[in-house]
Design goal:
There is one protein chain. The protein has about 80 residues and is mainly beta. About 0% of the residues lie in helices and about 35% in strands. The protein is built from no helices and 5 strands. A 5-stranded antiparallel sheet has the order 1-2-5-4-3, with no helix packed on it. It is globular.
Amino acid sequence: MGTSRTFKYDREADTLHVNTRPPYPGQATGEVGDEVIARLHRARGEFENLGGLFFSTRRVRSDLFELPVTVALHPTAEQ
């Protein structure tokens, strides 16, 4: 169906990572706004990874933090 995503919080870097695949050296990297870093596939220009910087401090600030991620949830066979 869709691409799976993993969410990982790096406490030392205070960054929330949203990945569709592990980062690799050939990805293009840039800030897409509000301290959100994106890693893109160079040829296709598609997002493969996003990182929300200073993640823990966003809870105490009054500004809204959004990551542009669409997720499809599916039940597992165990349910």
